[in-house]
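anyone else get weird line breaks when pasting these?? whatever heres mine. first is seq + C-alpha cells for prot A
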Amino acid sequence: MDPSERLTKTKSRPPIPADPERRILITGGAGFLGVNAAVHLIKEGWFVTLLDNLSRPGTERNLKWLITRYPNRTSFIKEDVRNASILHLAGQVAVTTSLVDPGTDFDVNARGTLNMLEAVRLHNHDAPFLFASTNKVYGKLDENNSACKETQPIDFHSPYGCSKGAADQYVRDYARCFHMNTVVLRQSCIYGAHQYGTEDQGWVAHFVHSILNERPLTIYGDGTQVRDLLDARDLSALYAIAIDKIGITRGEIYNVGGGAENQRNLLEVIDQIGELTGRKPQFSHSDWREGDQKFYVSDITKANNDLGWTPQIPFERGLRELISWAKSVN
C-alpha cells in the first residue's frame, strides 16, 4: 500500500457503496483540506465533485492522487470561486499575501464566498453549506492564555482577517435572512498528509518539509507563540457530522481545533520534528509579523456538546504520520 493511502485512512474498511443521493461539491477540493475531506466523505458513501483553480502548489499532485484512487467516486471542475456564472474550503489562505494584495484577497475570500452563497440560494436552497472560517476573525486577542470560546468578540485584524471575517458573517446571516442551512467553522491550525505548506501558511508541514530537506527556517517572533493543532482527518470527520446533523448545526458557529491537549508552541514543534527525523533543525529569528496571534487555543466544548465531536488523533501521532507521508513525496 502506498504510504499516502495508508495515512489518509480513518477506518480499516473499504468505502461504503456510493449513494446517488449523497453528492457534495467541495470548493478548493484539490487543496490540502479538500483532499482530506474528500477521502473521508467518499469512504462514508458520498460522490464528490471537486472545484479548484489549481493555483496553489501541490494541488495538481493532490488531484491526480485522489482521482487515481477513486475514479468512480470523484469528478473535477477547474474553476475559480470568483466567477459567478458545499463544503466551501476555497480561499486565499495567507495573512502575508493579504497585506501585499488586499484586493485579490477580498475578491477570493469575500466575493468568492458570496458567489457560492448566491448560487446555493438560487439553485439548491436547502443544501448544507459549510464554510471553513478562521481563528483570525478574533484578532490578536488579549494574552491571557485561555481557550477561545465562540462568544469571544470578533475583531478583524489584517486584510485576511477582514475578508474571511466578512465571509464568515455572510454565511452566518444567510441562515437567518434566507433560512439556508449554513454552518461556520472557525478553524485553528490544521495539519496532515497532502499538505505541502509554505512560510506563509501551513507552518507545521512547512517545518517538516524544510527540516527533511535541510532547508533553514525563519521563525517570526521568539517562537513561543502557541497554537492548538488538529489533524485534518479529525476535521474531515467533523465536516461529515456537521452535514449529517444539519438540523443542529444550521446557523451555528463552532470553534474548531485540537484543543488544550494539543497546544504547542513553534519551538516545541521544531524540536519534535528534529527528534522524529534525526535531523538538526536550522533556523533564525526575524521580527513578528502583522496580525500574528501570540496565543490561540480553541475552546471546542460547543462542538463536543452539540455533536459529540472531539479530536481522536493526538499531535504526537499525527506529526509522526505527517513526517512519514512527507518522506514518501520528497
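and prot B, same format (seq, then C-alpha cells)
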Amino acid sequence: MTPAARKWLLRAYTAALFAFVFAPLVTIAVFSFNSDRFPSLPWAGFSLDWYRAVFADATIARGLANSVCVAAATAIISTFLGFCAAYVDYRFRFTGKTAFMALMTLPPTIPVVILGLAMLTFEGRIGLTGTLSGVTAGHVVLSSPFALALVRLRLADLDPNLEAASWNLGAGRWSTMRDVIVPFCFPAIVAALFLTAAISFDEFMIAWFVSGLNETLPVRLLAMLQGQVSPRINAVGTMVFAVSIALVVLAQLVIGRRLRVRTAKIGR
C-alpha cells in the first residue's frame, strides 16, 4: 500500500469513527427541531416549540440551575484539591506517598453505582442527603482525580531548578507559588476547571442517589423518561450537549490565548 493510499485510508477510518460516535447526538439535535411529536422522517416541519416547552417547565429550569451551581462549585473545589495533590506529588517525598496517590486516583475506577450508594450512606449520617452540598461533595470526589492528572502532567514539564532559583533570589515559598508555579500551570488549571465542570454537569448516578428533591438536570431527564417519551427530552439533550461542547471550546480558547501571549512575550 502506498503512503498516499494509507493516508486516505486513515482519514476515512477517522471520519467513520467520528460519524459513529456523533450520529446519535446529531439525530437528537435534528429531531429537537421537528414539529412532529414523534421522531420520524420525513420532517413535519421546523419548530422551536419543544425548546419553548422546556423553558416554560419550572422543574427543568430548576434542574438546570441546580446543575450549573453544582458544576461551578465542583470545578473550583476539584481543581484546587487536584492542584494541591499534584504539587505534593511533584515536590515532596514522604512515607506512604504511593498509597496517598493511589487513594487520590481511586474514585474514577469505582463503579458509579457503588460510589453513589456509598455517598448516600455516608452523607445520610452527616445530614447532607437531599442537598446540593451533598451532590457537590460527591462530584468533587469523582472529579478531583481528573484535575490532579491534568495539573501533574503540566508540572512534569517544569524544571525543578526554577523553584530553587526563585528561593535563592529572595522569594518565599508562597510568592514562588504565586509567581512561578501557578502561572506555569495556568493552562492545565483552566483545562481542569472546564473538564471537572463538564463531568459534574453530565453526572447522573451520584446525583440520583444523593440529590433527593434537589434534582439536577440529568436526574430530571430520567424522571421525564419514566413518565412518557416527550420531544422535550431531545431539546434538553441538545442543550446539555451544547453546554458540554461550549466548556471544552472555552477551555481551548483560554489556553490558546494564554499560549499566544506567552509566545509574544518570548519573541520580544
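btw re prot B: Residues 232-267 form the longest helix (36 residues). Residues 96 and 149 are 19 Å apart (CA to CA).
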